[in-house]
Each structure stands twice: as C-alpha cells, then as structure tokens.
Amino acid sequence: DLGSSRRATLIRKLELATGATVWSRWVEQTTSAPVLDEQGNVYVGHGELVSLSPSGLERWRAPVVDPPLAAFNGDLLLTNGQVRATADGAQRALPFRNLFSNALMLPAGRIVMTEDWAVLRIEAHAFGPGAATGTWDALVKEMHGGNWVTWSTATSSGGFLVGSGDTRHPNWLKAFDATGAERWACQLDANEGTSMLEAPVALLDGRWAMRANDRLSVFSVPGERPAPRGWVSGNGNGQGSRRPLP
C-alpha cells in the first residue's frame, strides 16, 4: 500500500485477513508501485532505488532513476532493461533498448519484449540469469500501422504465449518454446483492426483469457499450463501481487 506526498511515500504492509498494518515506513521520494521478490523483500524507486526487508527495514539504496519492473532468482529488472542484484543493488546488466510490454523472469533467465521502429518489429529477447549477453531473439510480429500486444505469459515448458495484432491485420495468439522458436499460431478473429487486445491476460490449465473492446474471451489452448516458478506474467503471478512464484 502506497500513500504519497510531494516529497515522500509511505509504504505499508497490511495483514491480508484483517487489513491491519503490519509495518509502515516513509521513503524520501515519490515512488513507483512496489516489486517484491520470492523472499518478500520490497523494491521501490523513482529517482533512487530502495530495497526494504520483509520486516520493513532498509536493506540498501542505489542512485538509479528508473523504477523496478520485476524480480526473481537474485535479479531485479528495471523498466529500462537494466538488471541489478537483489542482494546489494550492484549492476549486473546495462540498460536494454526499447523495452516494451511486460517481462518474464524464470529459472532459466529473463525474457523481455522490444518495439523497434527502425526495423518495424516487435521481438522477444532471452538472457540467462544475471547475464548481459542474450541467448536468443524471436520475432513476435512485424509492425503495421497501430500495433498492440498482450502481456506475455510463461508456460510450464519454459516458453511463453503472447497475443498481438494491428490496425491492418487480425489478432493472433502465438506460442514460443524455451529456445524462442514459434511452436504454433492461432488467428483470434476474422476482421483486421476491429478488436484492440488489452494487455492483461491469464493462462490457466488449457485456457487463455483476454479482453478486447471491453469483452472477455477465453480460448482453449490444450496442453498449455502456467509456469510454476518465477515472474510468470505482467504483474508477477496469476494473482497480480507483483511478486514471483517461489
């Protein structure tokens, strides 16, 4: 829970069952939404990156402008693609260009999406844990007119699902494996550009749910199951708690 003033933000941990305050702490800045790791450590920042322990004690801070995006397995990913160590805030990887949509952080590493207007491509890029050098790149879609993608959702096989579309073509749902190879693709509608896919989606056992034009749709995706560990969707996990599955 965040309560902001012009110069500081009050961070509070609440008891889920009763709503009672477990602890509260002021951070001397206006912060982004918090990100948690699997141990319950908290990361906030907008001008300075601050880490708090599960009991609310400050662990470390670093002079970093960009706020946190996701955390898992000792890595803290920022919105500019930079990676910091969750233990002490040390830099592990430099910023990555044109970060777009959400990121996935899995035991095998992280997968980020980029939007590149120079080559008109939306791509996925994989990196090993803490690594600055990528392991593979995959084309998600070529860009035409106005473009959109849903959140990517990690699958139990180590790959991911993502929906995409644009104003000139129908929407598609695509599945990629752990090496970035496209496994299958399914056209979601018949008409081009009539349904703009919204970012939030959910992957259940054999079902993928999405919204477009204020309408909820659920598609059968036999054999596809959510990943059991990691930052597996846009807000960390299926509950949207901005925390990875341990």
Overview of this protein structure:
There is one protein chain. The chain has 246 residues and is mainly beta. 0% of the residues lie in helices and 50% in strands. It contains no helices and 23 strands. It has strands at residues 2-4, 9-14, 21-27, 35-36, 42-45, 49-52, 58-62, 68-72, 75-78, 83-85, 91-93, 99-106, 109-116, 121-127, 134-142, 147-149, 153-154, 160-166, 169-176, 182-187, 197-204, 207-212, 215-220. Strands 16, 17, 18, 19 and 20 form a 5-stranded antiparallel beta sheet that branches. It has a 4-stranded antiparallel beta sheet with strand order 4-5-6-7, with no helix packed on it. The protein has a 4-stranded antiparallel beta sheet with strand order 8-9-10-11, with no helix packed on it. Strand 14 and strand 15 (134-142) form a beta hairpin. The radius of gyration is 18 Å and the shape is globular. 36% of the residues are buried.
What is the number of helical segments per DSSP (H or I, 4+ residues)? 0
Global geometry: globular
Structural class by helix and strand composition: mainly beta
Q: What quaternary form is this? A: single chain
Intertermini distance: 22 Å
How is the main sheet built? 5 strands, antiparallel
Strand portion: over 45%
Q: Specify Rg, calculated over alpha carbons.
A: 18 Å
Overall mean confidence score, pLDDT: 93
**Series of secondary-structure elements, N-terminal to C-terminal:** EEEEEEEEEEEEEEEEEEEEEEE
Provide the low-confidence segments as ranges.
Answer: none
Number of strands: 23
Q: Main traits of this protein?
A:
246 residues, mainly beta, 5-stranded antiparallel beta sheet, 4-stranded antiparallel beta sheet
